[in-house]
TrEMBL record:
Keyword Signal: yes
Matching PANTHER family: EGF-LIKE DOMAIN-CONTAINING PROTEIN, VITELLOGENIN RECEPTOR-LIKE PROTEIN-RELATED-RELATED
Keywords, ordered alphabetically: Signal
Keyword Magnesium: no
Protein name, as recorded: PKD domain-containing protein
Transmembrane segments: none
Domain PKD: 53-114, 137-187
Taxonomic classification: Bacteria, Pseudomonadati, Bacteroidota, Flavobacteriia, Flavobacteriales
Signal peptide coordinates: 1-23
Species in which this protein is naturally found: Flagellimonas iocasae
SMART domains membership: LY, PKD
InterPro entries named among the record's database cross-references: 6-blade_b-propeller_TolB-like (IPR011042), Cueball_EGF_LRP_Nidogen (IPR050778), Ig-like_fold (IPR013783), LDLR_classB_rpt (IPR000033), LRP1-like_beta_prop (IPR032485), PKD/Chitinase_dom (IPR022409), PKD_dom (IPR000601), PKD_dom_sf (IPR035986)
Length: 449
């Protein structure tokens, strides 16, 4: 009997102990669980990230963003001011304790740029790009107008050759990544570009330019006192102006300079009264004629001179023009009064017009014509390249020392020594304009675009 009571007592005690322990376990609060997500794990400097807190069993939160800043908000927003990789931590705390969750955020540079005068962009005019990127160490530009249209400069300029809409991209890079910013720009048509007519004003001893923009503006380019002459030519490839100087016989010169008059250099010297000059730009040759019957040439820097590679004894050469396409040159003699066609190597000379003399000739290789000043009749004339079918272009009577043909516009330019004027007309002489009057003694001319 006593043994049964003892057994019942043990069972009861064990049951009570089990129930008591179970109640203690049920009374413990649940453990907090830190969980969060981000709207992006890679952003650019200054770009906002939205953090979303999905923690469980938590009532307090402490965020650490890896850049020294913190927050106690439930789901904060954050942006970074530097480019790096940052460790973001969230400590979530509840009655049952705290846990932590981490995430890496990569912050790249922020790429951005502006364009100066974006409403006024024009083809052929340089566009200035201003780099507004943040925290970048290098840059790569793509200007959107060709496979080689790029730059690594921080603030480049770029010139578009044609009007249109172009998509320009800037990639800003740092050690941790890169960011691309793209915007479209609208480039308008190129502005109208006006040419300048350069001329030698021998009376005033100046090389001058006349702006052909309708203003009539004349600019002094070079004072040629002590080195005046009449011949002039322009190398449009290398942008050099050549002119002759017969100031002191037989110490004449051929000069070369930039269009602004700088870097003046004598490339040929000790010439007996050099008159007209002409250029074969593709072959790198300059030709000139003189008062001693010589047609001469040299490299365009004056080296390798060939003095008198074609000569006519007693001739007073006054003008020369080249027909490079047909390997011909034309030279004008005022003593025997003949206009010659000669091979450019000096062989096979032929008189194509006789009984004429003047001071200027110009070859129109597009229309196979030659223009020449005939002072016997005081006329500006044009003929076929073989001298046939001579026609009158102008009857002003002035001596002409400079002619220039502009094939793009279909215009002929010439100077009038005695009239003191510069002229322009259609190639047949119609539509004649007086571009400038009141000049002292205009001689050689060139058109520079």
């Amino acid at each position: 009997m006593k043994s049964k009571v003892y057994i019942y007592s043990i069972v009861l005690f064990s049951s009570l102990l089990f129930m008591n322990c179970q109640e203690d376990e049920m009374a413990l609060p649940p453990q907090a669980e830190a969980v969060f997500s981000a709207s992006a794990d890679q952003v650019a400097v200054g770009e906002t990230i939205q953090f979303t807190n999905d923690s469980q069993n938590a009532t307090a939160y402490l965020w650490s963003f890896g850049d020294g800043t913190t927050s106690k908000l439930v789901s904060p927003k954050k942006s970074y001011e530097s480019s790096d990789i940052f460790l973001v931590s969230l400590v979530s705390t509840g009655a049952g304790g705290s846990t932590i969750s981490n995430m890496e955020i990569t912050v790249t540079p922020a790429s951005s740029f502006t364009v100066e005068d974006p409403e006024s962009l024009l083809a052929t005019v340089p566009v200035q790009f201003n780099n507004m990127s943040l925290e970048a160490t290098s840059y790569s530009w793509s200007f959107g107008d060709g496979t080689n249209s790029s730059s690594t400069e921080e603030n480049p300029t770029h010139t578009y050759t044609e009007a249109g809409t172009y998509s320009v991209s800037l990639t800003a890079e740092s050690a941790v990544g890169s960011h691309v910013f793209t915007q479209d720009i609208l480039v308008g048509s190129a502005p109208q570009k006006f040419a300048d007519l350069y001329y030698i004003d021998l009376g005033d001893e100046y090389v001058r330019s006349l702006a052909l923009d309708g203003t009539g503006t004349v600019s002094d380019i070079l004072n040629i006192a002590g080195m005046g002459g009449v011949g002039m030519a322009y190398d449009h490839v290398n942008q050099k102006v050549y002119f002759s100087d017969f100031n002191a016989y037989p110490l004449g010169n051929i000069w070369k300079m930039n269009p602004d008059g700088s870097e003046l250099e004598a490339i040929a010297s000790n010439i007996g009264d050099p008159y007209a000059i002409a250029l074969d730009i593709d072959a790198g040759k300059i030709y000139w004629v003189d008062d001693d019957g010589n047609v001469s040439r040299a490299n365009m820097d004056g080296s390798n001179p060939e003095i008198g590679f074609f000569t006519v004894a007693g001739a007073w050469w006054r003008a020369i023009a080249l027909d490079v396409e047909n390997s011909k040159m034309y030279v004008y003699d005022s003593y025997f009064e003949d206009l010659y066609e000669v091979n450019m190597d000096g062989t096979d000379p032929n008189i194509i017009v006789s009984g004429v003399y003047g001071y200027a000739i110009s070859v129109d290789t597009v229309n196979d014509k030659i223009y020449f000043d005939d002072q016997n009749e005081e006329l500006l004339k044009v003929a076929n390249l073989d001298g046939s079918d001579v026609q009158t272009v102008d009857d002003n009577g002035t001596r002409i020392y400079g002619m220039h043909i502009d094939h793009e516009e279909g215009k002929l330019y010439w100077s009038g020594r005695d009239s003191g004027e510069l002229y322009r007309a259609n190639l047949d002489g119609t539509g004649k304009e007086v571009l400038k009057t009141g000049l002292s003694s205009p001689r050689g001319i060139v058109l520079i675009k």
